[in-house]
Structure formats: structure tokens, C-alpha cells
Amino acid sequence: MTPANFLPTARATVLELRVRNHPGAMSHITGLFARRGFNLEAIACAPMGDCATSRMLLLVAAEPRLDQVERQLARLHDVLSVSERPDLGPEFFAGMFVAASG
Amino acid sequence: MKTTGAILLRILLERQGIHTLAGIPGGAILPFYDALHEGPIRHILARHEQGAGFIAQGMARATGRAAVCLATSGPGATNLLTAIADARLDSVPLVAITGQVPQPLIGTDAFQEVDTYGLTLPITKHNFLVRSAAELLEVVPLAFQIAESGRPGPVAIDVPKDVLNALIEIDPDSLPAPGRALPVPDCPEAGIVALAAELAAARRPVLYLGGGVIAAEASALACTLAHRLQAPVVSTLMALGAMPPDDPLFMGMLGMHGGKGTNLLLEEADLLLAIGARFDDRATGKAAAFCPRARIAHIDIDRAEIGKIKTPVHGLTGDAADILRRLLAHLPVAPAGGAWRARAAQLRREHPLQVPPAAEDPLHPLNLISFLARELPATALVATDVGQHQMWVAQAFPFRRPRTLLTSGGLGTMGFGLPVAIGAALACPGRRVACVSGDGSILMNIQELATLAELDLPVAILVFNNANLGLVRQQQQLFYGRRYAASRFASVPDFAAVAQGFGIRGVRLDPGGDPLGELAAALAKPGPCLIDIPIHDAANVFPMVPPGAANHQTLTAPELEPATP
Fold first, then answer.
1. Is B468:B487 a contact under the CB 8 Å cutoff?
2. Between A and B, how many CB-CB pairs are < 8 A?
3. Side-chain half-sphere exposure of B18, counting CA atoms within 13 A
4. How far apart are CA B553 and CA B354, in angstroms?
5. What number is the ipTM of this complex?
6. Which of B121, B148, B309, B310 to mutate to probe the A interface, most A CBs <10 Å?
7. Distance separating the N- and C-terminal Cα atoms of chain A
8. Helices vs strands, H then E, count in chain B
9. 3-state DSSP call for residue B238?
10. d(Cα B376, Cα A68) in Å, to the nearest integer?
11. Cβ-defined contact of B304 to A35 (cutoff 8 Å)
12. Cβ neighbourhood burial of B366 (10 Å; 0-12, 13-18, 19+)
């Protein structure tokens, strides 16, 4: 995907998760979005500090069910915390693609 | 001391207090069976892994404690999936342990290899693929902790064969503590005070009890609250047994096959307090039209349930027993609710369950259920399968105590009844267990008759036999222009002979003779038995709210029966 065709939903918001860093954590999180019919537009993930946990940024549609998305995420065993990052918009992900496309 | 992963797994299960588990051996799990061979844990050999899963569920549902089922890799694991998914939807604590091919073979399409981790991911509360024997020390207690904490649910542990065979040095004196339910965080006091004020001000409050009330052991507190408020109580299928049916405030089951008066009462309520209920579509009907005049308050241990279907005015997350106890402290005096209570009694009186007189039609399913309730000891447990017979049991059997009805509420799994009855009988020695089933459902785990014969447990199986997939046939009659596609059985087995073939007492009631006398005699004898009961193939479950309709759009019996296809 290039910055030119990265077109997030008009009203999208960024969720920040702190998750246990082990195999399967990503499957649990992405699977939840598929299973519950929530939209997931972009993901960035990187290990933190001692690599026991990772920080994950999710670009999701700012729909009325966002609260429900957050609660469903929070009840996954591998998800340690969920918070909204209104300071990071879709531009954050667009910037990442610019950087990656060199 | 040096031991193997398999023996360590057995030791960890023993430390969890597991004395009975159900399963079927196979290649990948064999090292663990070898370890079981020399230990005190009793292994129940099921005849199909789904049976093993439901036997474990029967133990868990009857006791509230996590139970264990075992299967090998590949087909063993896939056969467990239905029982795991069923436990997920009904919040049953279950630990499913599966063998897996050795790690070097994972991903190579090895013999009996399937991605058990991937398959169980969406149907468990959490799942594990164990990568070393040392990991068992962390994973096994954690699995039990997760299964029993908060809202209970199933946890899957997939263990590759090389992990079971691996040698590991352990210190028997410093093994991890068994996993136990974590304390539930307290619900903030402000929410409780606000809800108490709302309840005190309500003129037409209704309590809507779900399975969470039973899981939280909050049944008595919910009844106390109902009486304090003079509030009528409606129950989901999963909460039957939380309030005695002869309590003057009890309005029975709501929803698709709930009482007509019960659903009409909800139309008039000005405050609905849901406790451990999840606003399932079978209970609410068309959600937008559910309780149109009521403000909604919701108590649940799972925060994600609050606001999932209906947005409440008060949403309280926490342990139902704790919240109810604290609510009661704020509600010292019973408000004057005489008119509302009288209105509930009037609706109950005006819309009774429609049952033909027992003298005229003793084999009408609802009359049979009432007869069964009189014949069974008060301590009996009732497991059902899924279909018309299940709804008749829910409508007519007077469940007086929590955990006496074991039924597949959320997933609606045919084949549930027999293995769950076996598990319940194992967990509750000395108590009679009745499995009310249908001729469609019983065939879906009929092989467990062999398990039952072997164990000689006091399980009585009652097959309500209408030679139909009755609830399907009923929907086809009512909503598909009486086009009976694939719902009628041209060939029905002789179930009494089938039972006898398995070594179990089998009786077929003769409608022309003294069927109730035969039924009573069959139930009075000890040990397992199967009773085949011919019922009218046109008998339907009424009232019924059509799927997708609002709960006040109830269909009732008179205008529709008799309608023999």
C-alpha cells in the first residue's frame, strides 16, 4: 500500500493496546475484530522494553460501537490495557507508509 | 526430582483437585494416558470426544467448578469443538486438554495434525499451545484461574507430544499454587446508591434474571430483592431454578417460548433490572421493541455485556451477590407496590400455560413433564437435549434449586443431554438424573449409552418420540407454509431395543395400556434406563414469538391446533 491509496475511513480513531508479547496475541486481537464484525483499518505493533509486552496501535472506525470494541478487547487475557489516542489520527499511519516507502 | 511433562501435567491436575476427567486416548496424547495409568485420577472413557467434552460439562454445570476433558490431536480435537463452543456461550468453566503432534512436525501436515490453537481461538475464553514442559507449570494453574475467574468459560491447552515426553527437573515442594478464581473488583458504591434510588422510585419494576445469578450463587439474594421491592421476576432459560416456581412474584420464563403474561408484563414495566443476563435474542425478541416503557439497569460481571444490546441507564460491573447484598442495604423498607404485584398476578392468571387435562391426554408432553416432576425425588437433576422437549421442560418442570436444570442455552446443541447427564451423575453421587431428550437429539450422542452402561449410573433417559425434528417441523408448519423439508423421519429406531443392545434397561411405553404406570415403574427401579415415550407428532410448543418479532406478538395454541401435517 502506498501513501497515495491509503484512504482511511473519514472518522477513524486510534486505540492503543498494551499486550502480552507472545505467539497468538495478534491472532486473538485480529480474530476478535473479524468475529464481532468490527472494522480494523491498520495495525502497528512493536515490543516494549524487556519484550515481555508489546504496544499495539489500531486504526478503527469511530463508530457508535467503539465503546463495545474497547470492552471486548479489554476482556482478552493477552490485552493488559486499552486506551484511546485522540492525539494520533489517521495521519500517524499515513506517515508510517511514507517512511516505509522510502 | 526428574519427571516427564506428562507426569507433571498429571500432578498439576491433581493439585487442582481434579479427581475425575473424561476423554478418549490417541497417539499424540498417549504419554499423558500412560502417566494417568499410575495416578489417582479417575478417567471416564467416552465413546466420542464430543461425549467426553459434554461429560466434563455435566460435572462443571452441576458443581460450578472447572472440569477437564481430554482428546488426542486432529480428529480428537475437532470432535471436542462443539462441547467447547457450547461451554463458551453458556459460561461454563471447562479445561480442554488436547495432544498435538511433536513440535518439529507442527506445520508439516503430519498425521492427525490440525491447528487446534487456531480452531479453539474464537470459542474459548483463552487458549494455550504449550512449548516446553516447564511452561506447564505456568499454563495449567493459569488455565484453571481463567476458566473460573469472573465470567466463567472454557480454556483449551494444546500439548505437543514431545512436551509430554520431555524430561524436566522439578522440586515437588515448590510447585506453583493451584489456579483459583481471582477476586472480582468491587463495584463502585456510587453506582449502587444511584441504582437503589432508581429502584425505590420505580412504580413497575421487574427483575430479569439470567444464568449469571446462578453462577454468582446470588439466587437467594435476588429473591430477597424481589420481595423487598415487591417486583415480579422473569427468568431466562439459564436462570430457571434461581427462584422457586410457586413464589407469588415468579413470572416464569420470558421470550420466545415464555409465558404470554410474562412478555406482556415486560411491555408495562417502567424499570427493568437485568442481573447476569445478556439480552439474548431468544429472550428479548426484537431488541428494539423489548421493554418499550422501561428504563434499563444492568448488573453483570462482564463489562462487555453492559450496553452490548441495550444501553442501560445504570450499568454496574461486578459480582452479582456482592452488588445485591449492598443494594439491599440501601433498600430497607418495602415500598408500596401492591397494585403492580396484583397486575402481575392478574396477567399470570389470565395467560396460563395451555395444557389439556391430564385425564384426557396423559401423554401430552406438558402433562408428561408434570408427571415426571412428581415421580422424581426433590434432589433430582434434569438434563435436556435441544428442541421441543427442552422448551416443554422449561415451561412445565418446577425447578426449585439452582443447578438442577442442565441445558444447552446459547449454542443449542442437540446431543448435549446424555453425556451431560452422565457427567452430572458422576459429580453428584446418590442423586437421580433425568435426561429428557427427543428422538432427534438422542441419536446425536447415542454412543454414550455404552459409557453409561459401563458406569451403571442412576440416569433415566426419557425419549419424547414424535418421529420428527419437532421444533424444525413446528417452524415449517408456522412459517414455511407447511412444507416439511427434511424434518420427518421415515425410519425411527426401536430405542428400547437399542438401549438393551448397549446393556441398559429399555422400555417402550404403550399408549393403549398404562403408560404412566409403566413410566413410574421404570423410574422407580435403580440404575440406568431408557424410556421411549410416543408423543403426538403434531404437538407444538406454545406460546411462541416468531423469530425476529417483538415479544408481544405471541402465537398461542388455540387458533393453530390441531394441525396434523
1. yes
2. 30
3. 32
4. 17
5. 0.89
6. B121
7. 13
8. 21, 20
9. helix
10. 45
11. no
12. buried
Inter-chain residue contact B308 with A31, CB threshold 8 Å: no
A-chain residues within 8 Å CB-CB of B122? 31, 35
Tell me the residue length of chain A: 102
Q: Does B115 lie at the interface with A, CB-CB under 8 angstroms?
A: no
CA distance B32 to B238: 35
Q: What are the distances in angstroms from CA B236 to CA B218, B263, B475, B502, B547?
A: 15, 12, 21, 36, 17
- The helix or strand, by DSSP H or E, that contains position A14, with its residue range, turns out to be strand A12-20
CB contact under 8 Å between A77 and B302, yes or no, is no
Question: What value, to the nearest 5°, has the Cα angle with vertex A14 and ends A12 and A18?
Answer: 155
pLDDT tens track, chain B, 565 positions: 999 999 999 999 999 999 999 999 999 999 999 999 989 999 999 999 999 999 999 999 999 999 999 999 999 999 999 999 999 999 999 999 999 999 999 999 999 999 999 999 999 999 999 999 999 999 999 999 999 999 999 999 999 999 999 999 999 999 999 999 999 999 999 999 999 999 999 999 999 999 999 999 999 999 999 999 999 999 999 999 999 999 999 999 999 999 999 999 999 999 999 999 999 999 999 999 999 999 999 999 999 999 999 999 999 999 999 999 999 999 977 666 689 999 999 999 999 999 999 999 999 999 999 999 999 999 999 999 999 999 999 999 999 999 999 999 999 999 999 999 999 999 999 999 999 999 999 999 999 999 999 999 999 999 999 999 999 999 999 999 999 999 999 999 999 999 999 999 999 999 999 999 999 999 999 999 999 999 999 999 999 999 999 999 999 875 444 444 4
> How far apart, in whole angstroms, are the C-alpha atoms of residue B50 and residue B413?
11
DSSP B487-534: -B-S----HHHHHHHTTSEEEE--TTS-HHHHHHHHHHSSS-EEEEEE
| Residue B435 bridge partners (DSSP) | B383, B461
Separation of alpha carbons B176 and B164, rounded Å: 18
* DSSP, res B361: -
The residue with cell 404403550 is B510
Calculate the alpha carbon distances from B128 to B87, B93, B133, B135, B212 in Å. 17, 16, 13, 10, 26
Shortest CA distance from B130: residue in chain A: A23
SS3 B136: helix
Nearest to A35 among B117, B122, B303 (CB): B122
pTM to 2 decimals? 0.96
Q: Are residues B303 and A31, on separate chains, in Cβ contact within 8 Å? A: no
CB contact under 8 A, A68 and B307: yes
Please give the angle made by the CA atoms of B50, B235 and A64, to the nearest 5 degrees: 85
In chain B, what residues touch A76 (CB-CB under 8 Å)? Answer: 126
d(CA B546, CA B244): 28
Q: Nearest-CA residue of chain B relative to A74?
A: B304
Q: What whole-number distance in Å separates Cα of residue B67 and Cα of residue B65?
A: 6
> If you measure CA to CA, which chain A residue comes closest to B121?
A28
Q: Give the span between the Cα atoms of B450 and B277, in whole angstroms.
A: 37
SS3 B116: helix
